[in-house]
């Protein structure tokens, strides 16, 4: 039976991974995509972002990138 866990599941977050998470949040990267890039579960990304006081809420929820 194959192991479906991400490569970093259960491991301690490194300073590089935390820096990468901060960059991904700044770039408004969807949580699932960030999780794939970091080798973590989406729940782990949500948890770490919460620990760091980062909001994963999209900054622009307007459809089609309309400008005012």
Descriptive tags:
68 residues, mainly alpha, 3 helices
Describe the structure.
With 68 residues, this protein is mainly alpha-helical. It has helices at residues 15-26, 31-38, 42-52. The protein has a domain at 15-55. Helix 2 crosses helix 3. The protein is globular, with a radius of gyration of 14 Å. 10% of the residues are buried. The model has no long low-confidence stretch (mean pLDDT 85).
Radius of gyration: 14 Å
Helix content: 40-55%
Shape: globular
Number of DSSP strands?
0
* Sequence of secondary-structure elements: HHH
Estimated structural class? mainly alpha
The amount of beta strand, in percent, is under 5%
Major sheet, described briefly? none
How much is the average pLDDT?
85
Distance between the termini: 53 Å
User: Which spans of ≥5 residues are poorly predicted at pLDDT below 50?
Assistant: none
Number of helices: 3
List the helices and strands and how they pair.
Blueprint: H1 15-26, H2 31-38, H3 42-52
Helix pairs in contact: 2-3
């Amino acid at each position: 039976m194959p192991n479906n866990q991400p490569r970093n599941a259960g491991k301690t977050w490194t300073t590089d991974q935390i820096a990468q998470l901060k960059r991904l949040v700044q770039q408004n990267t969807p949580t699932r995509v960030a999780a794939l890039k970091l080798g973590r579960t989406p729940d782990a990304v949500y948890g770490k972002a919460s620990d760091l006081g980062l909001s994963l809420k999209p900054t622009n929820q307007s459809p089609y990138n309309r400008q005012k």
